[in-house]
Amino acid sequence: MLTTIKNLPALTITSDNFQAYGQLITSSKDGKLYDQTDAKLNLKNGIPRFYIMQLKKRGRQFDRITRHCQCTQCLGALEGKEWLMAVAPPSEQNYPDLTQLKAFKIPGNCFIKLNVGTWHAGPYFDHDEVDFYNLELSDTNVVDHFTYNFLKEDNLTFEIVT
Questions:
Q1: Rounded Cα distance, 138 and 51, in Å
Q2: 123-146 pLDDT tens trace
């Protein structure tokens, strides 16, 4: 059986169009008081881990999507590099709602906070290499890493297009 490749157009991220998946966090003046524009974090279920992950040659295709049900996750690119992320809102099922699957183009001068349970594929990019900072729990990728395999279950691959 042939694999179907579906194009997923990338939207330019805004606070409004990303709201179902998490938050877009942009710069603010030093001294600003805490408000609704700050990341609302849930890291209470373990030891927070903040690290820099180096990714190489990611391209734009994916056939798996993951979620974390015990914490929020923050991601941002260093060096101002633009990147892409596909997301679907949290769901009760063990698979994402394809009707709500979206891709976003994210500039390198901000970061995203994913809500607890948000399905995500990425980061993806066209650069040779990008360093990303990542805030999650120390054991997120061991005990809180649930993946749905589109290729195995649906014979489907996605390609993010801009």
A1: 10
A2: 999 999 999 999 999 999 999 999
Q: What is the CATH number of the domain that holds 99?
A: 2.60.120.480
- 53 CA to centre of own chain: 14
Query: Do the domain assignments include residue 65?
Result: yes
Considering the domain boundaries, does residue 35 fall inside one? no
pLDDT, tens digit (0-9, with 9 covering 90-100), for 41-82: 999 999 999 999 999 999 999 999 999 999 999 999 999 999
Count of other CB atoms within 10 angstroms of residue 107: 15
The distance of Cα 86 from the centroid of its chain, to the nearest Å, equals: 6
Bridge partners of 4, per DSSP, are 156
